[in-house]
Design brief:
It is built from 23 helices and 17 strands. It is α+β, with helices and mostly antiparallel strands. It folds into three domains: 214 residues, Aminohydrolase, N-terminal nucleophile (Ntn) domain (Glutamine Phosphoribosylpyrophosphate, subunit 1, domain 1, 4-Layer Sandwich); 219 residues, HUPs (Rossmann fold, 3-Layer(aba) Sandwich); 71 residues, no CATH class. The mean pLDDT is 94.
């Protein structure tokens, strides 16, 4: 929906920070200065196009937020707020409730959000949604004059633009990025810049901002679900999914979806088709490379069955070299996931047609779709192994061992979970917020689009995560209950077909240039700070390591842009000899 920035408990203006985030909020910026604080908002207008500008004021409180509160209609109705609301903004009911319930009001929200709320009593709360769908970064001013001062923004680049931090690389997070494809935990790849963790809330402690007492997690909202029959389970699933898609469609601007060949986006498409009278606009990206799995054929079958307004996008070698530096610029908080490339081009194609895009992120994590979950349930003598990243980083001095150890610490699950839930929990804590959701946020917001994830609604998540294991994994199939539902509601999705696995043929596009790229990448200051340089050269000269080339190439371009100050086109052209 927007970009936000602010300074709390100290002097300074958020203007320079918010001006660095206008790609997130192209419809205009608003800045409000107060005693000891500065709040700024760059708006992408989605709900109440005229009255939804922020900072928003009600009941003596002030708020800026990024995201959407999907149940704002129900909150207004259930708590008798309609006569008190001055706007149609999805954030205003929260302001009214905060005046009555303080932090407890946040527990009522269904949505994706980061927000900063200043109550009528002057107390401040900063919060992020439970899955980390929307990002927030912050730095603390370390001097004795303003010990409680905090500056925050939707992207790290804004903190640098405002002079609140300097881009300096944290070596351990760079190792995590190259070994795992993403960074870990609250620390970012930039020294001193932290993320607000998924579900984290901070508020006044008397000496500045500090973590607030934790609210009940989404996984504790629902007891282990019971069903009278398989038909009953499917019926309950249908109801909870339809309700989520219904509220995720709330928008005063055009919405549609990204449709892959998988069952998660097919499920979203099925429900959108059910809930809309007009054909829903859907975009699919495919690859014109023989060895690449092209999802367009399967997506088209689903689109025809559901009468979607289907639009296909092709991604080729020319796109790869054009889009790569643009993606590296967009991902100031980086992930080396190559799925960022088609996601970026899809957003590029959808811009001007849609403003809101629904996607299937979260389906695999909550309904247990990954093959590694099934392997984790097998005994070792049948090929079972832990559901953890398979690190292949020969260019790191320790091969990625330290990164894997850090991942195991970050992925530790609470007591009382089954082995399958432990594997799901690990991904929800690490891979989901710091790779998949980061990819979605940056690639879409770079084009002024909002991505929405109905599977990560609190009601869907509570239902799915607490399903008995047998309704998630059965035999060689994950997402068993979701497949049974889709078999009934959209047979064209072929829910029992063997999944091809999503890949982008980056190795094929890099290969012809590999021997020239190797020596140049080996000279990158970022690569030299983290990697074994002889091993880097070997990666680009030895075809046994083709899969290791992409993360090194991306990291080199990313480092040139965000730590060396190069323009995106310059960062790549230097490597290509242009």
């Amino acid at each position: 929906m927007c970009g936000i920035a602010g300074i709390l408990n100290g002097s300074g203006s958020a203007r320079a920070m918010i001006e660095a985030l206008t790609h997130r909020g192209p419809d205009g910026i608003r800045i409000e200065e107060g005693e000891g604080r500065s709040l700024a908002h760059a708006r992408l207008s989605i709900i109440d196009l005229e009255g939804g500008w922020q900072p928003l004021h009600a009941a003596g409180s002030t708020i800026i937020g990024n995201g959407e509160i999907y149940n704002y209609v129900e909150l207004a109705k259930d708590f008798g707020l309609k006569d008190r609301l001055a706007t149609g903004s999805d954030f205003e009911p929260l302001l009214q409730l905060y005046g009555e319930r303080s932090q407890e009001a946040l527990a009522l929200l269904r949505g994706m959000y980061v927000l900063c709320l200043v109550g009528a009593d002057g107390k401040i709360a900063v919060a992020r949604d439970a899955f980390g769908i929307k990002p927030l970064y912050y730095v603390r001013r370390a001097n004795h004059h303003q010990e409680g001062r905090i500056a925050f923004a939707s992207e790290p680049r804004a903190l640098f633009a405002g002079g609140e931090a300097r881009p300096e690389m944290a070596i351990d997070q760079a190792e995590n990025l190259l070994a795992l494809n993403y960074t870990l935990g609250a620390e970012t790849i930039f020294k001193g810049v932290r993320r607000l963790a998924p579900g984290e809330e901070q508020g006044d402690s008397g000496a500045g901002m500090a973590p607030l007492p934790a609210r009940p997690a989404w996984r504790e909202r629902r007891a282990a679900t019971s069903f009278t029959s398989e038909r009953d389970a499917i019926s309950q699933l249908d109801a909870v999914l339809e309700d989520s898609v219904r509220v995720h469609q709330r928008s005063d601007v055009p919405y549609g979806l990204f449709l892959s060949g998988g069952i998660d986006s097919a499920a979203i498409a099925t429900l959108m088709s059910r809930l809309n009278e007009r054909p829903v606009t859907a975009f699919t990206c495919g690859f014109d490379v023989p060895e690449a799995a092209d999802e367009r054929g399967q997506a088209e079958r689903v689109a025809r069955a559901l009468n979607l307004d289907w639009r296909e996008i092709s991604f080729g070698e020319e796109d790869f070299w054009r889009v790569l530096p643009q993606v590296a610029w967009a991902l100031d908080d980086p992930t080396t996931d190559f799925a960022t490339l088609p996601t970026y081009k899809l957003a590029e194609a959808a811009k001007g047609v849609l403003t809101v895009v629904l996607t299937g992120e979260g389906g695999d994590e909550l309904f247990a779709g990954y093959g590694r979950y099934r392997r984790a349930l097998r005994p070792a003598w049948l090929g079972g192994r832990a559901a953890e990243p398979q690190v292949d980083a020969p260019f790191l001095k320790d091969g990625g061992a330290a990164a894997l150890a850090r991942w195991r610490e970050a992925a530790a699950s609470p007591a009382g979970l089954t082995r399958l839930q432990q594997a799901q929990w690990a991904d929800i804590q690490t891979w989901l917020p710091n790779d998949l959701l980061l990819k979605l946020d940056r690639c879409l917001m770079a084009h002024g689009l909002e991505g929405r994830t109905p599977f990560l609604d609190r009601e869907v998540a509570s239902f799915a995560f607490n399903l008995p294991d047998r309704l998630k994994v059965r035999g060689r199939y994950g997402k068993w209950l979701l497949r049974k539902w889709l078999e009934k509601t959209c047979p064209a999705a072929q829910p029992w077909a063997r999944k091809q696995g999503f890949t982008v043929p980056v190795a094929s596009w890099i290969a012809p240039r590999a021997r020239d790229l190797g020596p140049r990448i080996a000279q990158s200051p970022g690569v030299r700070a983290v990697c074994d340089i002889d091993a880097v050269r070997s990666v680009f000269s030895d075809d046994r390591h083709v899969s290791a080339r992409w993360p090194l190439l991306f990291f080199t371009v990313w480092h040139a842009i965000h730590l060396e100050g190069a323009a995106p086109e310059e960062a790549l052209s230097g490597l290509l000899g242009g």
